Automatic annotation (TrEMBL):
InterPro entries: ABC_transp_permease (IPR001851). It comes from the Bacteria. One of its GO terms (cellular component) is plasma membrane. Keywords: Cell membrane, Membrane, Transmembrane, Transmembrane helix. Coiled coil: none annotated. One of its GO terms (molecular function) is transmembrane transporter activity. The keyword Membrane applies. This is ABC transporter permease. It is found in: Cell membrane. It is a multi-pass membrane protein.
Length: 304
């Protein structure tokens, strides 16, 4: 279970990136599946080549920023549908990632990574590692909160809420979309780089279906913990990522087939989307029932 908490906190960075496009920009970005692997591939090949792990991770972030910017440019300048723009970038990144790694799987087991001190100290799988990953996730959450409260961040939010209105104030919504997509995929690539170092390898297929996990984290987190303010919403996203990984771990512990994990993820997303609507319908139905009772009681009194 400790491993699930560690993974949940690391994947929380990816969930923050998905939140930025899905909730803030209202942009269905499918680049995530490709940029996650790009981050892992760039970090892995540089670490194997002897680059300092920190610099390799920063390079992974830069690669993610570039991937997101490409999707944004395809959409804003090429006038390509948002879904299609993300798919095109994702498909292109598959070949690029293979070129970067030179193979479909790249091992990091004998290399020094950012997590090597934790492994050598026997801290992986302990509360100390969970606390460290929690601090990392919290730092990026706070940075995102700060950014979204700056003038640039407010313009980004306004672009997602009402693009025509913010354009009337002279803001370039095209630039905002490119910026938002770049930042989102930068966070996703950072997550990919850390996951590669955590599990000891980078694989060409490690990002497949990741968008579902990201959406599950965002939707589950906000359904459970709320989204009244940016600060609460981003915290809910990180906690949602932890909840999602814990649920997956529990599913594995009851001997469910690992091949069914994608199906379980899809079911979790459907449940998180549908249950709040059912809950709202139930509340409305209850209120209507109370009002009908009150009206019936009033009518009876009048007749009497």
């Amino acid at each position: 279970m400790i491993g699930a908490l560690e993974l949940g906190l690391i994947y929380g960075l990816m969930a923050l990136g998905v939140y930025l496009t899905f909730r803030i920009l209202d942009f269905p970005d499918l680049t995530v599946d490709g940029s996650f692997t790009t981050g892992a591939a760039v970090a892995a090949i540089l670490i194997v080549g002897g680059t300092n792990p920190l610099l390799a991770t920063l390079a992974a972030i830069a690669a993610g920023l570039a991937a997101g910017a490409i999707t944004g440019i395809l959409h804003t300048k090429g006038k390509i549908n948002p879904l299609l723009a993300g798919i095109l970038t994702q498909v292109g990144l598959y070949s690029i990632n293979l070129r970067i790694m030179g193979t479909s799987n790249l091992s990091l087991l004998r290399e020094d990574t950012l997590l090597t001190p934790l492994r050598e100290g026997g801290l992986m799988g302990t509360a100390v590692a969970v606390a460290i990953f929690a601090v990392v996730a919290l730092v990026f959450k706070v940075l995102l909160d700060w950014f979204l409260h700056t003038d640039l961040g407010l313009a980004l939010q306004a672009t997602g809420d009402n693009a025509e209105m913010i354009r009337s104030f002279g803001v370039s919504t095209d630039r905002m979309k490119v910026l938002g997509l770049a930042l989102s995929n930068g966070l996703v690539a950072l997550c990919g780089a850390l996951i590669a170092q955590y599990q000891g390898y980078a694989d060409i297929g490690m990002g497949i279906g990741l968008i579902v996990a990201g959406l599950a984290s965002v939707i589950i987190g906000q359904a459970i913990f709320g989204s009244r303010t940016i600060v609460i919403a981003t915290l809910a996203v990180v906690l949602g990522s932890v909840v999602y990984r814990v649920v997956i771990q529990l599913a594995l512990m009851v001997n469910l087939d690992p091949n069914d994990m994608k199906l379980i993820s899809a079911v979790l997303v459907v449940g998180a989307l549908v249950l709040p609507q059912w809950s709202g319908s139930w509340r409305i139905g209850s209120r209507l029932g109370v009002r009908r009772t009150q009206v019936a009681g009033t009518t009876t009194k009048v007749d009497a």
